[in-house]
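Listing 4. Sequential folding, example run.
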Amino acid sequence: MIIVLKLHATEQQIEHVIQRVEGMGLRAHLSRGTYRTIIGVIGDEAKTQVAPLEAIPGVAQVVPILPPFKLASIEAQPEPTVVEVAGVKIGGGHLGMIAGPCAVESAERMDAIAAAVKAAGANILRGGAFKPRTSPYAYQGMGEEGLKILRDTGDRYGMPVVTEVMDPRRVELVYRYTDMFQIGARNMQNFNLLTEVGQTRKPVLLKRGMSATVKDLLMSAEYILSEGNANVVLCERGIKSFDNTARNLFDVAAVPLVRTMSHLPIIVDPSHATGRPDLIPACALAGLAAGADGVHIEVHNCPEEALSDGPQALLPEQYADLADQMRRLAELLGKAISQPAGAV
């Protein structure tokens, strides 16, 4: 950490800053330049987080050397993390192909969709049992009954399942049925929820908030990692923009940007990013080309009857065509789509 002092900082103020730094068990190295005086702080920067150093008289700026998301940073772990979801690997050259309906609606419909996406090459089945909706009058999900249907369907087709958890009080319930927690965009900064799933050690799919920066996303991941759960997969799912042509702005640049900042795998969700089936294939392929570790796509066999987000879902045959393109692109990129052990 570097402490930059104000232009006219007094000797008394400089000495006070040094005393404060040394009082925290750190070493201070004073360097006087022509125009600025700086103090280099040597030691564990975490000790300075509880002390508002910028509030000390004479201090102009405090510049951290390490990012605040220490555990998620690439400095902490240069090699990419590989997250394993019931045998399916994501990261380090392994692609997670997550597909399924927005919401679990019935056992029959879930079975039909799972059969289709499995045949197309998807390796993780998704479906929401608890739905965070903008309107309180919209479909809120089937709850535990939906979790049971999702679990049974995943087991039938040999696919791990991922579903959203919205409430810290329901983490234990969702834990019993899912192979991977999903933290949705609206809950990306629900820090109590992040702490709870961090204590489970179960893989977590963490979606970027609608108005969150990449740094915000990584800070949220830090909450999970700091509790001891290293199995975090990030997800770019679009952010709010002034342009309403698509549902959100698909920030494909976030994928290579995360690569420069973190060792965690990152996937893309072009369904929520665009809200338009005609844009999903191009954005899915763009995400993979940019270095994504997988793609999350909503699939429904009758979108006009869907109880949640039907207009943004691909038909099974559309997904099959896209999955074939993604598989061929993955081969060009030297990546593999893994399947769980014993999958048929």
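-- end of first protein; second protein begins --
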Amino acid sequence: MASSQNTADDFALSRVPAGARLPMWEVMLVRVGALTSLAQFMMGAAIGYGMTFWQAFWATMLGSVVLEIVSFLVGVSGAREGLSTSLLARWTGFGKYGSGILGLVIAVGSIGWFGIQNSVFAKGLDQALGGLLGFPLAASLTGMFVTLIVIFGFKWLSWTARIAVPGFMLVIVYGIYQVLKNHNTWNLIASAPPGPTLSMGVAATMVAGGYMIGAVITPDMSRYCRNGKDVLWMTLIGTLVGEFGVNLAAVLMAHAVGTSDVVTIVMKTTGWLGTAIVVFATVKINDLNLYASSLGITNAIDSMLSRKVNRGFVTLIIGIIGTVLSVFGILDKFINFMVFLGVFVPPVAGIMVVDYFILKRDRKLLADSREKSLLPETCETINPVTLIAWALGGLAGYLINIGIPSLNSLIISGVAYYIGMKIFGAIMNQKNAEIDQTA
């Protein structure tokens, strides 16, 4: 096995072989790290500020169940095939060029959020050091620090998680201790929301929508899992710790302190050290942003230009670009565009799940090549039914305000794809019709 595949390339355009699979807890730590972040804590505090504890509990439950189902289904397919999301998409409805488009969408959205989160990390670091570095230097250092981690692949993400996740959880536990030391637990649980009332639908949407893109790209992580059982535990523990644990802790703290301002909450309960650790935990979500972007770009270049490039080199280039954009504050002006892109990622899961688990069009092709630890020799070029279903799902998520937008887009795209492929199959007089095959 080439050393480049063990480090920088990280099996970006191939299956993760059995010998490179990791114990469940290593993959699970990375997953937990993606959820135990400043953004997750902010969401929990916002929910707690507008809801009672039990209202927040059930909103978190509803959103978490949605995330767990999506994460598990796409995660199992990723683990079984050993493929990243954008690469797996070639044989789950999107075809060669469709998966390239998907890779670009994921990459642009992820690199955008990388730059925005890097700004948050740099501002926090600069404030913690009393303005010693200045924002431009702090943003440059933090951006290149995360880029260096991601260049060396999933193994380094795992090592970072071993430091960031326990540190973040210790801060949360200490914060809860400080809250409960000065407040009666049952009074906090029974207390009214300290802020304007938040509806159950809005809160559940915040929970499910806040990590739906992370759920869709679960194969980027689960391809390192050894089997479906590992995927179940990895996603379930991640949901329990990251969604329930962090959300409900933030709810209690918001009730105790009477604000949704996360920095105020953490400062009042854990002091400067706790604040610094929570800000550092931003690294764990940001390295996954850059990692997903590097996989998406690598697949897009291979799909559209038939050129294989090293994922580590791609990471370096886009890491520098994202860092420079964050230094100049350009990406902060494109948050609405990032949210718009985010609406068009959830439909991907609906299409992939329908194709892989229900229609099973390329399952035999994948199974035969899996036995040889190779990729299938052929795939569709591009599937117009997929593009139509993808567009319908994205528009539904963007325009329909009833329910959970990301879930609406996922379900509508899946149903539209299923019906569309059945109609196409009837026209072609084939049970599992393929469009145009290419090597």
